[in-house]
Design goal:
3% strand; 392 residues; two-stranded antiparallel sheet; mainly alpha; Protein FAM49A
């Protein structure tokens, strides 16, 4: 009877969505299991139609069988207060450490957003290599920018250390990932803020080619001066070793995401007594919590602004991407504890785009917008990335 009730519930939901008349409750299961035992007195029944509907509902026979054998994960149902979570005494020490890092995040983003680059000065200097005045003008324009880029890079190092401390608190025994996230909501909120900052930083960086152009010009000029045995004052602040590390950082398409990925992998390798599943389960649970909050009206109504809904959505996206980077087989295999398709079951339509499945550079969800001009900055990143990869 439990199986019959389950199938009846699924069929009822499917009929309610499509507006079609609900089919007899035994046809779906019997048809999908390739049996010919179909209830009589149902001449209007269309087993193929019903089975296709159910397949669409669960996206394949594999997931259908999971439903029939009760292997579908029960997602954690609790409200993670992204707006007002406050640390308990047990969380306060780690919370203070992370908060000291995150308090600079908004100024970092504002500084990056205001970054205009020295493109005209560099272009004039390259076109007129014998004009000393133009060379000095370009150099004087680039040096302050390199100092700003150094600040961004140094913040990524602080963020990397903060994330490792956070993961240690959210994955340690004896609690499960769900228990950690429910009990330590202030730390979970900080984890979400780190992911949110990461997506915003990488969005701004990817849309600003001046960053790499400026730094490349700086490296070339420094190398040329070394050949001429000249020492510049800025080398005292950005020495060769620092410049090499910064170069690797900014060469990444998504440098902050790469930083988080490296930090997570380093945490796993340093804590050999802690199974990697503790870390990946923390990420998959965070995804499930965000998904449940987005699709549950009771939880959504507790958010005071639409921006918090977008925050929750971006965090879900960030966690999925991070999971794909650190999990041995990624987020897009059948055995993954994250079913990426769950994200489409949100209270409003959400599109999913993915590029480079295993080496995920892009996975963004958003509510559809009628015009490109109406896209948010977050959405514009997806448009830019898809175009860069040759998608229309």
């Amino acid at each position: 009877m439990a199986l019959r009730s389950l199938v009846e519930q699924v069929e009822t939901e499917g009929g309610a969505r499509g507006g079609a008349k609900r089919q007899p409750k035994y046809i779906v299961v019997i048809t999908l299991l390739k049996s010919h035992v179909i209830p009589r007195n149902t001449p209007e029944a269309e087993p193929g139609l019903v089975s296709s509907s159910l397949l669409g509902r669960f996206a394949g026979m594999g997931n259908l069988l999971k439903v029939l054998t009760r292997e579908i994960e029960n997602y954690p149902h609790f409200f993670l207060d992204f707006e007002n979570a406050q640390p308990t005494e047990g969380e306060r020490e780690i919370w203070n450490q992370i908060s000291a890092v995150l308090q600079d995040s908004e100024s970092i983003l504002a500084d990056l957003q205001a970054y205009k680059g020295a493109g005209p000065e560099i272009r004039d200097a390259i076109q007129n290599p014998n004009d000393i005045q133009l060379q000095e003008k370009a150099w004087n324009a680039v040096c302050p920018l390199v100092v700003r880029l150094k600040r961004f890079y140094e913040f990524s190092i602080r963020l990397e250390k903060a994330l490792q401390s956070l993961l240690e608190s959210l994955t340690c025994p004896p609690y499960t990932p769900t228990q950690h996230l429910e009990r330590e909501q202030a730390l979970a909120k900080e984890f979400a803020e780190i992911l949110h900052f990461t997506l915003r930083f990488d969005e701004l960086k990817m849309r600003n080619p001046a960053i790499q152009n400026d730094f490349s010009y700086y490296r070339r000029t420094i190398s040329r001066n070394r050949i001429n045995n000249m020492h510049l004052d800025i080398e005292n602040e950005v020495n060769n070793e620092m410049a090499n590390r910064m170069s690797l950082f900014y060469a990444e398409a998504t440098p902050m995401l790469k930083t988080l990925s490296n930090a997570t992998m380093h945490f796993v390798s340093e804590n050999k007594t802690l199974p990697i599943e503790n870390t990946t389960d923390c990420l998959s649970t965070m995804t499930s919590v965000c998904k449940v909050m987005l699709e549950t009206p009771e939880y959504r109504s507790r958010f005071t602004s639409e921006e918090t809904l977008m925050f929750c959505m971006r965090v879900m996206v960030g966690v999925i991407i991070l999971y794909d980077h650190v999990h041995p087989v990624g987020a897009f295999c059948k055995t993954s504890k994250i079913d990426v398709r769950i994200a489409v079951h949100c209270p409003f339509p959400i599109r999913v785009h993915r590029c480079c499945s295993r080496q995920t550079q892009l996975l963004f969800f958003w509510p559809p917008s009628p015009t490109e001009s109406g896209l948010s900055k977050f959405q514009a990143l997806l448009v830019a990335l898809l175009r860069a990869r040759g998608h229309s």
